[in-house]
Every structure is written in structure tokens, then in C-alpha cells.
Amino acid sequence: MLVSGWMTPRNDGDEPLHDVAGGEPPGAFGEEMGMALPEPTVEHSPGYLRVLLSLLLAATFFEGYDGAILALVLPAIRDTFNVPESQLGVSRALIELGLGVAFFLARAGDRYGRKKLLLWSIVGYTVTTALTAFSVDLWSFTLFQGLSRVFLGAEYAVAVTMIVEEFPKERRARVLGIFLMCEAIGAVFVALLLIAHVDQGPLKWRTLYLIGLVPLLFLAVLRRRLRETRRFEEHKRLRGESKTPFFEPWRPEYRRTLVLVGLIHLFRSLPLYAATTWFFYFAEREAGMKSSFLYIIFIGAYGFGTLGYYFAGTMMEKFGRRPTAIWYGLAAAVSAFELFQVRGAPLIGLFLILAVFFGLGMAPVTGAISTELFPTYIRNQSAAWARNVFEISGIILGPLLVGTLGDHYTGALGSIGDATSVLVLLFLPAVWLVWRHLPETRGRELEEIEAELGVAHAPVTTARRTAAPAIVVICVVVAIGGLVFGIQSLNGITRHPEGAAERFLQGVSSGDSKEIRRFGTRSLSTALFGTNHGEFDEIEVGRADQLGSLDRVPFRVTWKDQTRTGLLLVADQGRGHPSEMKVEAFTPGNFVVPSEGGAPPGQAPRAAWPIAVISVVALTAAAEAILYALRRR
Asked: What's the angle, vertex CA 527, arms to CA 526 and CA 528, rounded to 5?
């Protein structure tokens, strides 16, 4: 098979892609079909490219804006809906499942055009984001945000495709870098709004979602000047209205490439979204940092760290896609791991800058490889498979695994920071696959790449149905289901006293009688805080220490300019399997919590780290086995 031949770790971009195992020379397929490979058409004027880029930047700005709201106000959302970390993880997983649905919308760009898909996805995103402001509970919030992800996923896929197809080869990577940098700037804008206390009005965090209506203004101004991409129009002229089969990217010519690109997306997205989703929650609830100070650190880190997008684009053009991806992936793994292990504002700020610079900054590489390695007639659809099927699995699993493993009460690890650090190691399999298999496409026109792969302008036929895609999907679903079931079973035998104390205080804050009775008593709540305390502004607990049959958990609570500190005495009830932990008494005093230099609540057992390393090696070996099997077919 031709595709297997050019996937070698030593293609440095100076030699044309070719089949080292023998076979037809580059372009033979097109010549056999009697087709002349079209040359690139005349470029658009600089003025039009500026208009196009303006609309795409506005769209991606609000994509970053929308995603940052959920990350930055996650503690406030939890307080509003009064749910544990595990439910937040499930909610985030369901929200990101919308990106999987976006696959079916994004592939429409190869049939109806890039322009229509971009415009309608922007409309859909803004409407559903505004509806999020009217959520009445966690699950209505999940529904509206999930729908917004459907349109965001389609918008991202078609925007990257339009950049790749419309901008000249010498600017393509840099424009991708600027495009993705604007997404991070949208996240910084959320932090600026929070510093300005936009969330302190009557609607609180809901106000941030209403601001998401602004993209409609850009759409109203610029939509009439937007044109269809030249390459899609050429494709449509040659092929007419023929419909691309659903599994066309899984043809033997493209199958191994698609799986390779998809696995790289998966192993990058899982640790990346685990870290971005839970960073603020970790920093506030485990590292003990004040939210107002975190916003400042976030702005500084993202303000500098977003330059990683631009430098990635520059490095891609100067050194190539492969070396850029390798160095960025390694640096992302190290910096993100340390980010969730260190304490103190200087170190957290430093590693946040590096994690943003390299972790998020790697996006131009994945955006390029998911589009450049496929012919025009399936480029949008292939990118949709890579992002909205493979990458969505990581986007779903990352936050879900951190939430379930790191839940302060039932999590097997009991620490959000340690659970995230474990998953960050999955950057390493992505780096391995890039080094071992990814071809170099630096400095090549899309038509050159298509011709050298020997599949340029392959005819659209009624694709022979193959069980391979269905088997892949079924295996992914079974693997995810088995993993989640296993984690839930493991959590069923785990209880942490810090989590019990935190859940009791959370129940008191929200006035949830069921939570108060489950984790304490109404009389204890009244003795501690009275009956008209209102919602707490801040809840913080530290690491428990054992005294006889009781665990002593230091805590600090503030409300209405009042502060209460002390120790909550937590006891194992010893009934049922597993038995519940419950707050039974209170000891007053000034005890040290994380924000005052105390130990953070929860810590992963030592056995978790070697198990994590073994799991990373096993996943890398499994990916190699899959690619080897596809090469031999």
C-alpha cells in the first residue's frame, strides 16, 4: 500500500514523499485516470484575505472565550448547582460530546461548501451560548453547552480548512498560528471581565454567556464579503454535485494516515483538556490561591504564553512540522506535569506560562497535519474525523477521568492535581508517533502533496463498505465504557475525610438539607454558622490527620465579612459497603489551610505513578500495533 511506504521517521522534508517499499511512482493514479493535476489558481487579493481572516479570528476568539468561561468559573458553577467534582467531570464529558456530533455537521462542508457551514455554525454557537445563561440546573447547563460545542466543532474544522485552502503556502502556517492565538486571547478576555467584576451582578457568571451574542455583529457586517474557497469551487466544477461517501476517508489509500493523525490528536487532547478544564479548580481548591489573584496570573500567563501559537507557526515554516511538534510536545508534558505539582504563586505562574506556550501552542501543528495530508475532496471530512471523532474521545475522557479519579470524597486518587499530572504523561505517546511516523510537508503546495501521495483527485465512487470504521468506533465505545465502569467500581471502595468535610460545608452553604444530613447534622450546622448565614464566599479545607478513630480536617469559611476556622472531626460510620464518612464534631481554633501554607487535601498513593508509566508504554505499544497492522493490509 502506497501510504505505508512514506510514513518513516526520517523524512525531513528535503526529499519528495515516495513509496520506499516499491509500487507506482507519485502521481501514477491520476495519470491512469487520464486526469491532469490542476495547478494552484491565482491567489486572492490581500484585501479579501484580510476580510476572511477578520471573520475567522472573530469566530475563534469567541470559541476561546466560551471555553474559558467554563474553566474559569467552574468553582462558581459548582457552588450554584451544588454538585461534587465527579458530577462536574461527567457534565464536562457530556458537553464535549457535542464535538462528536459536530462531526456530522462539519463533513457537510465537503458537500455544501465552506462558506455556508462557517456562517451557520457561527449563528448556532451564539444562540446556544446565550441560552446557557438561562440554565436552571447542571443538566440544563450541560445541554445548552453541549449544543454550543456542536457548532463550535464545525466552525473550527471549516475555519482551519479555509485557511489551508485560501492562504499561500509561505503564509499558511503563520496564519494558523495567529488564528489559534486569537482563541487564547478570547480566554484572556474572560479573565479581564472577571477582574472587572462582571460576574458580581445579579446574573453572576451567567452574564458572561450573554456577551457571547457579540459574534452576530461580526457576522452581519462581514458575511456578504465572504466567498467560497477557490479549491472547493474547482473541486465542485470538476465533480459536480456528487456526494462524498461517509467512509471515504477510510479508503485503503487514506486509512493509515487517518488513524495516525487521529491518534496524535487523541494523545494530545486527553491531557490538554484535562489540564485546561481543572486548572482553576485545582489552583483555588487545592493550591489555596485566591480567585482574584488567579485571574491576574492567568492574564499574564496567557498574554505571554499565547505567543506559543505564533512561534509554532514560524517554526513550522522554518524547521518543519515534525521537529516543531516533537519539541512542543515534550515541553508541554514537562511543564504541565509540574504545574499541577508545585505550590506558590511564582512557580504556578511560571509553569502556567510554559504549559500554555507549549501545550496550547502545539495546535497549529495538529491543525496543519489534519488537513494537509488529504486531498481536497475529503479534506474537510478527514479533518472532521480526526478532530470530532479521535480528538473528541480525549476531550471527553480527560475531564471525566480527572473528575472521577480526583474527586475529593470518592476519587481513587483523591487529588485533582495528581490525577491531572498522571494524565499529562499521555503527551509522550503523541510525541513518539510524530517522530516515528509523521511525514514532513513543509514548503509544499497542497496539489504537490496530493500528487506525491499518489491519490490526487481520486474518483468519487460508491465506496466499498468496510467494517474497519465500525469496528474502530465500537472498540472506542467499549473501551471508554469499560474504563468508566472500572473507575466507578474503584471509586466505590474509596472514601476521603477531606471530601466529606468539604461536602458538608458545601451543603451548609447551599442550604441542601440532604447533603447536610448525609455528611453531618443540622444541629452542627446551626452551631457553627447560625441559621441566616447565606451562601459562603469561600470554602477551603486542608489535609486530614488521624486521631484515634477520627480524622481531623482543618477548614476555613468566609461569608458576609465573617470568617470561621477550626477542625472538623470526621468519622467512618462503619455501616454498609462502602461505609460513609460523616462530620461528627467541631474544634475551634486557627488551623493552617492550603492558602496559608498548609498541606493540600488528598494525595495520590505512590503506586499510582509506576502504574501511570506502565499505562503510557502500553498505549504507545498498542498504537504501534494498530499502525503496523494497517501497513500490512
From this structure: 90
